[in-house]
Amino acid sequence: GLIFIMDYRTTEKLVPCPFNESHQILPHRMALHIIKCRKNYPDVEMRTCQYNATHIIPVADYDEHMTKCTDKGLTERATFYRQELEKKQPPNNRKREAVNVQDLKSGEENWDSDIVAVASYNPTENILKREIIR
Predict the structure, then answer these.
(1) How far are the Cα atoms of 9, 17, 66, 86, 122 from residue 37, in angstroms, in the given order?
(2) How much is the pLDDT for 38?
(3) Where are the transmembrane segments (predicted)?
């Protein structure tokens, strides 16, 4: 049988560079291209979208873009979700001890007294407990 493998680069839609529309870039390569291309156009006044760093907009069109940006909803939902998670987490109940500076004698430090017993990092346990947005 004949196996046909389609190259993703031929099916992915090219996106024009914000600095030069004749530069047609694959979307997943745009961030790297912008970094390189921006250096060739130092006098062009552009701003970066706060919702997507690959959205480089002329200063005159920036406000309109910010109201219509397709990534605005994603960012706002992620921010809301993070705030909701923070509300659910219990406050940090660690007690802090005040240290009287006058009690410390200059030149005498005891590094052993600062050791705090902390459980070692367990990546498997960390992944199982992490909440993931799907």
Answers:
(1) 21, 8, 23, 39, 42
(2) 93
(3) none
Which element (helix H / strand E) includes 80? Answer: helix 72-88
Among the listed residues 89, 90, 97, 91, the one whose alpha carbon sits nearest the alpha carbon of residue 116: 97
Pairwise CA distance, residues 21 & 15, whole Å: 9
Cα–Cα distance for residue pair 37/5, rounded to 1 Å = 32
d(CA 40, CA 49): 20
Q: Can you tell me the distance from the alpha carbon of 12 to that of 45, in angstroms, rounded to the nearest whole number?
A: 29
pTM (predicted TM-score): 0.51
User: Largest Cα–Cα distance of the chain, in whole Å?
Assistant: 84
Kindly state the tokens that stand for 52.
């997507």
Q: Residue 15 to residues 10, 29, 58: CA-CA distances in angstroms?
A: 13, 10, 16
Spatial contact of 37 and 17, defined as CB atoms under 8 Å apart: yes
| Residue type, position 57, single letter | I
List for the chain the helix, strand, coil content (%; round to 5): 45, 5, 50
